[in-house]
Amino acid sequence: MGAGFRQLLFYDEGDKLPGRSLSRPFRVIQGPHGRCCLQVYNGRKIGSFKERDMLHDIAPAAYNNDISFRAPVLEDKIIIYRGKQVLAFVEGDTMRAPLFADLFDESELEKIRAIYLFAVGEDVYFMAEVPDETIDAVLARQPYDASSEMDGWAFLPLQKLIEYHPKRERFALMVGHEYWNWYESSQYCGRCGAKTEHDRVERMMRCPACGLMIFPKVFPAVIVAITRPDGKVLATRYKGRPYANYALVAGYCEMGETVEQTVHREVMEEVGLRVKNLRYYKSQPWPDSSSLLFGFFCELEGDPEIRLDEHELSFAEWLDREELLTDNDHSLTREMMGVLREHRETDFCIVEATAQA
Fold first, then answer.
1. 3-class DSSP assignment, residue 253
2. How far apart are CA 270 and CA 157, in angstroms?
3. pLDDT in tens, 102-116
4. Cα 285–307–245 angle (5° rounding)?
5. CATH topology of domain 219-342
6. What's the pLDDT tens digit per position in 32-44?
7. What CATH number labels 63-142+149-185?
8. Is residue 49 very low, low, confident or very high in pLDDT (cuts 50, 70, 90)?
9. 241: which residues sit within 8 A by CB, 6+ positions away?
10. Dihedral (CA of 252, 254, 259, 264) sign
11. The whole model's pTM is what?
């Protein structure tokens, strides 16, 4: 995008632009579906907002989840979970998953039934059932002691991984748990109850009895930042959850909905408001709930009175932007709050202008 654009306005060839002054700098570029796109400038320079390092921001490493059926080698990594904890070697503020070589020798490796997960950069990750005695032997060989800062092996709570580096390893262990949950919950057919089998072509569990195909499930959801004409922003707090800081309106897509329709429905359900001028920001995978989050900025349409859904939320109020949190929690919500604090939400393209009835 060029410097200083305000928003992208799509139009078809031959359309007129009533009321649109073209005396300001602009350019026309190719838009989606063969339409043209008028890029209107307002003199501000986009890009001064510093984006956060979100969970999936692992560059220069790349995440590659193409399926593979190759066997592991000793230099590959194996991810081992116990509930919501993961085995890692901790060294100061860094950690890593074990290599197969940390647990097995060459002859033992041939007996391990491992499942290929993905690659992050040059590192390849597997999951496998490992006997408890093998894990306990590794832990006993060099246990981690946080009190004396001794390096070693430990089961780390997943929610504590944010405290460790490198980012790429943190991301791998979080996403690995998402896959682990899916494999664990897909061992039996939900239709007939038969034991499922691993497909040999794609990442899928197949029922040999009734033919049901079970694919990894990702749940689309929206994060919605709402502004009103005086500049205030709607902040919420969830009800009955450990997370107690400010949040934004959020919710899952339902069958038959677009993400834009989800924005309107969730805003109406949670706070009883109508919104317009939806601007898409960006997306973020959230492994803890197997969600794919879509961030939207939008504007209040009509009455600003909040009608709180007390089953979902404990709090919803219009706040000054300076009250929004800036702590480093690596989430899409926090990055969107940073955009709001800098009054940059109108730098993004309007994808839907009208409010729903």
1. coil
2. 32
3. 999 999 998 899 999
4. 45
5. Nucleoside Triphosphate Pyrophosphohydrolase (3.90.79)
6. 333 344 333 333 3
7. 3.90.79
8. very low
9. none
10. negative
11. 0.82
